[in-house]
Design a protein that fits this description.
With 548 residues, the chain is α/β, with parallel strands linked by helices. The chain contains 8 helices and 29 strands. The longest helix has 18 residues.
Length: 548
């Protein structure tokens, strides 16, 4: 939907949802952050953008000379790596198709203008066009070339609101190069509603962002999974349009949640200019609002929680704010391993939800740790079991605790030691749809099928399949011996053949033993599905082959 109105007068609900700073921040004049937007171009003349466009300090405009020696002539305001020229504007004949980068840029300017004095003096947007004017579709074939340009041109933050399911060795090297240069890359988790990694989002050094609706639920099309770091609003996001310099429109998707997060990262960096990329990441994730009332299937799969910009900018983790708690309930977070007296020395980590265990990853610890020791216990109780113990001087890169909660204590050898470090944790998630089953189990001899949960209740959001194939000329007789499912909700389907597109022969649920079922032919697909609300003990059946 297009509108002709100032963005300040629109229903920009997301600005309130991410908790902008209550007071406008004043940033020293010398501090600037360059955000590169690797996308389909940018309408740099738009009223919301024109004061923010990056200028290459080493290039003289329009002299036809490669002044900075990077092999590109007159890349004064970014570069089109797809068409190999300095025109980053969307093609005039295809403005509605080349809207993406402009919309992202407008989100960033809205947030920064609402948060800091003279935002145009501190935020620079570097347009990097990676979609050819004549491209047959919106797939950014030259996206990583654009990332490499932004790295070499001096970006501080790189916004990649796009992704694919794989990454090559050459692309990995580009992302590693950004990390080595202290550049933060923020990427969208993807818009295929699956528990599936997308790159660059899933790369370890990149911040992956999923999208929420106005009720803090995952939007339908957002990817989710262990690789996600944060979530942010991503539905009905109002921002600049490519149609004219005064047009605006609403868009939905993880791309726009990612742009919101990039703006937040820029504000953190402006407020704390000495912070490293990892410290900025800690600020964003440690202050995220916990997502309490989400569907259990997404617990731990939407990152540390919902972005909270005001708290991220304040960053109590490093600034010593007294509000820091030793009770950590989010699925991802951090422990501050510090010798300072005012720092917490023990933590209870108990993320809300069902998880396999807890994974800890340490960053470099600076200073002298002496004989200080980090210990992991099964609980806070006095009789709890010691799970693991590590000297800080030889802390493993990765520590796995096979419990869904743990008590961690830091024993500092003596008060004269001075050291500082960060220990990241994340709850290892469960794919509930396959918790007790495989994708499809293939069976060709008579036997028994159970729901797989044993003495436990079956999982919510189960999706389990068994394909039974008898010899030609025979049918299959099925007899249930146990049955306990949520009636009319958690269902066991029987299909006449090898797929769910075949005719349904029967559907069973509830607590009564179903009648004997004889198949119509020599093959039947059994599919068990459940919802997230109520789980039963499960079911068991026997099947045998008989002459037709």
């Amino acid at each position: 939907m297009l509108c002709q109105a100032s963005s300040a007068n629109a229903d920009n609900w997301f600005l309130k949802a991410v908790n902008l700073p209550a007071e406008i921040l004043t940033i020293p004049n010398k501090e600037k952050v360059v955000i590169a937007i690797i996308d389909d171009g940018m309408r740099v003349t738009h009223n919301d953008l024109k004061g923010f466009i990056w200028g290459n300090p080493n290039e003289i405009p329009d002299n036809g000379i490669d002044d900075d020696g990077n092999g590109l002539i007159d890349d004064v305001h970014g570069w089109d790596v797809a068409d190999n020229n300095n025109t980053v504007l969307p093609p005039q004949a295809r403005l509605r198709q080349f809207y993406h980068g402009t919309h992202l840029a407008g989100i960033i300017t809205q947030i920064t203008q609402a948060s800091i004095v003279s935002a145009e003096s501190h935020i620079r947007l570097m347009p990097v066009k990676t979609l050819s004017d004549g491209a047959p579709d919106s797939y950014l074939r030259d996206a990583y070339k654009g990332v490499e340009y932004a790295i070499d041109a001096g970006a501080d933050i790189i916004l990649t609101s796009w992704g694919v399911g794989t990454i090559s060795a050459a692309e990995s090297r580009i992302l590693d190069k950004a990390k080595e240069k202290g550049i933060l890359i923020i990427a969208s988790a993807g818009n295929m509603p699956e528990e599936k990694k997308q790159y660059p989002a899933a790369y370890p050094s990149v911040i992956a962002v999923s999208a929420l609706d106005k009720n803090n639920n995952k939007i339908k099309q957002s990817n989710f999974g262990q690789f996600v770091d944060l979530s942010a609003p991503g539905v009905d996001i109002y921002s600049a349009s490519t149609i004219s310099d005064t047009d605006y429109e609403y868009k939905t998707g993880t791309s726009f949640a990612t742009a919101i997060t990039a703006a937040a990262a820029a504000l953190v960096k402006l407020q704390h200019p000495t912070f490293s990329v990892e410290q900025v990441k800690v600020c964003l994730k440690s202050t995220a609002d916990n997502l309490n009332n989400i569907d259990p299937i997404y617990k731990g799969k939407l990152g540390a929680g919902k972005l909270n910009i005001a708290e991220a900018v304040n960053c109590p983790f490093f600034t010593g704010d007294a509000s820091i708690s030793s009770e950590l309930v989010k699925p991802q977070g951090y422990l501050h391993l510090s010798s300072k007296e005012n720092k917490i020395k023990s933590w209870v980590i108990k993320p809300q939800g069902d998880f396999k265990g807890l994974r800890f990853n340490a960053s470099e610890i600076t200073g002298k740790v002496g004989g200080s020791v980090l210990k992991f216990f099964s609980s806070k109780a006095s009789d709890s079991k010691l799970i693991a113990s590590y000297p800080l001087s030889n802390l493993p890169e990765s520590i796995y605790i096979p419990y869904s909660s743990t008590f961690v204590s830091l024993g500092v050898e003596n008060s004269s030691l001075v050291f500082d470090g960060v220990l990241q944790y994340e709850a290892e998630t469960i794919n509930f749809t396959k918790q007790y089953c495989k994708e499809t189990t293939y069976l060709n001899v008579g036997g028994e099928i159970v729901d797989g949960s044993g003495s436990n209740n079956y999982s919510f959001h189960s999706s389990c399949k068994w394909l039974i194939t008898a010899p030609e000329g025979k049918v299959i007789k099925i007899n249930f011996t146990e049955m306990d499912t949520e009636g009319k909700v958690d269902l066991i389907y029987f299909f006449n053949g090898a797929g769910t597109h075949k005719k349904i022969m029967a559907i069973f649920s509830g607590s009564k033993i179903p009648p004997e079922l004889t198949t119509w032919r020599n093959q039947v697909l059994i599919w068990f599905v459940s919802d997230e609300k109520q789980q039963g003990q499960g079911w068991k059946l026997h099947y045998t082959f008989h002459d037709r």
